[in-house]
Design goal:
Largest sheet: 7 strands, mixed
Number of helices: 13
CATH topology of the largest domain: Aspartate Aminotransferase, domain 2
Distance between the termini: 63 Å
CATH class of the largest domain: Alpha Beta
CATH superfamily of the largest domain: Type I PLP-dependent aspartate aminotransferase-like (Major domain)
Number of strands: 12
CATH architecture of the largest domain: 3-Layer(aba) Sandwich
Strand order of the largest sheet: 2-8-7-6-5-3-4
Number of domains: 2
Oligomer: single chain
Helix content: 40-55%
Shape: globular
Structural class: alpha/beta
Bound molecules: pyridoxal-5'-phosphate
Length: 473
Amino acid sequence: MSPEEFKRLGHALIDWIAEFRAGIEELPVMAQVQPGEIKALFGKTPPQRPEGLGGIQSDLEGLLPGLTNWQSPNFYAWFPSNAPLSSVLADIVATGLGQTGITWQASPALSEVEEVMMDWLRQMFGLSQTFQGVIQDTASTATFVAFLTAREWASGYSQNRGGLQGEAKPLTVYVSDQAHSSVPKGALLAGFGKDNLRLVETDEAFAMRMDALEATIERDLAEGRKPCMIVAAVGTTGSTAIDPVREIAERCQRYGIWLHVDAAMAGSAMILPECRYLWDGVEQADSIVINPHKWLGMACDLSAYFVREPEHLIRAMSTNPSYLPKVEEAKAYKDWGIPLGRRFRSLKIWFALKDQGVEGLQARLRRDIENAKWLEEQVRATPGWKVLAPVPLQTVCLRHEPQGLSGEALDKHTLDWVNRVNRSGKAFLTPATARGHWLVRVSIGAEPTERHHVEALWSLMRQEAERMEVAGG
Ligand SMILES: Cc1ncc(COP(=O)(O)O)c(C=O)c1O
């Protein structure tokens, strides 16, 4: 493709994306297709001859029914994964410049912009200068890297000797029973083994119980195991539960354990000084992950991983082949994680901050928190409706509980009305189980979601859930 052709097609595609975003509110939020429908649009074999990209817009139109519209103002499912248009431009530039950052030399600009952006994020999150950051693709990878680093740190860098086989004492790790699935997954992939993974009980607010944590650690010590890492969740996926970071950090210091903080979702709120009480004690963490590619508003994938003492990470991750020479004055990000090649992801942070400034991002997050508070108040004030977990930020966990319904019948009612809301295409919510029963999570924070959208959602939920009572069912 010549640069001239690129300009012509590129301008047309930018127009197409802009139109798509401008009309997104009119599209069904949840994809309306059945499994296989999108695959069927494609031939069974690849095109042997060039077709050209001239007709690509009409091909793309065919995919639209298969899109779940995360950027719709009526998206309240899983978590906000904002992809503002500044990120779209940054991604175009990142690929347009065609950089592959395997060493500083391979792209000094990529390396140094990442270093500056991670330091800007550090300041925005209120972390002290002790912390240094690196971009990982996802929180799952960052947490996995934390497990690998902690394992090496606690075992005196066992990979340099007998590897996992050489360990005399089994290493144990501790995560809340509400931890995101990527957390136990990371522990298992890092070789700790199910037998050494402790799912610590949580209290009525779904936060890790300190008495349970301590008893488990003491039992492991008494039985000859070596406690290695605790993961504190600052904002669980299910209900935004907040583990007590300061109290966990105190146990980590007492027993010599690595502290990793999973603030993948709620970490975005730390750009608001008034929310930082939620991770009080975080300065004691050894590693922290926050996903700017969730609520903060930088398109997926972009996960911020901060470490207090980078030498542990580097010691676990570094390689030193002759063809990747070290530059003493520069960071070698290949030694700060698993992949060698890296994209120019930091442009998304730079573009977002140039576009909105820290104040613009703060204003949007405050708006979302206010909207969640408003919804919480409506639910609490309405007979037959219940808020089921504290609402520290932007997720409201709720249930409609008609008189006389409980157990399986109530679960069925919950799933029925949520499915009706989702099938309507007017909003998209995700149900989840807590303590064995279904509830509905309303996760507020898509970039275009304003108060009137949340008001419309509340009416829609009431209409679908209370329908049964009207029908006398
Ligand atoms: C608390 C928490 N941790 C980790 C993750 C995993 O994030 P990622 O998709 O970046 O791996 C999520 C995603 O929802 C999350 O909410």
